[in-house]
Amino acid sequence: MNTAKQNAINLYMEGILKGEPRKAVEAYTGDRYTQHSTGVADGREGFVAFFEPFIARNPIREIKIVRALQDGANVFLQAYQNINNGEAEWLTTDFFDSDENGKIVEHWDVIAPVKPNNASGRSQTDGVTDVIDLDRTSANKALVLEFINSCLIERHIDRMADFIDPQNCAQHNTDIGDGLDAFVEKFAQGATPLRYQECFLCVAEGNFVATLNRASLDEQKLCQVDLFRVENERIVEHWDNSEPVPPRHEWANSGKF
What we know:
Order of helices and strands: HHEHEEEEHEHEEEE
Radius of gyration: 18 Å
Structural class: alpha+beta
């Protein structure tokens, strides 16, 4: 029997990359498939109805699963997609819930165009990929959740050094470079328009912790993903992805969350 992580990967690689959406969704989803990608309707038929024309429009598809985590019934995937030889490049970050058999029953995502490397020369997907320190999963998850709640939601910026390694923090956000100081500067401005409201989902495995957050930029609601690598009880690497929440009338399901 496949793990939930493998079933989530198979939905991508067989359903989208290989172009067999009906076969994949029937094989790897459970009795329900609740969808939060707002352009896709719930259920297996919603998946097929969206991806069959997508595959027809985009005959050349490259998909790479860069990082994959499983935390109990929940799965996180970070994927790179190149469509029609560079016509479009997408960074996709996905969260899944699964049933007792590991079949996928719910899906959330954040999809955004790939951006240029940041000031430190890092891309949105490069960096460490190996999952280690499995015995530290719970502790690392607790550390990241406290960081988000204290520093990003409650905005105790002075506590960032309690969570981020001051000597070694590799940054993959495209707007800032490496280091604690850059992270602090991004959030320390009293009028900064990026605001976090809630950590909605958290998936951790070993040294990696992924979070799905409610946020806003000015008046625009966001679905915000942050992925952290933890080493020696400090955050040492950070990736993110962000997508505006579309107006309610554009949703094909119950919405991003």
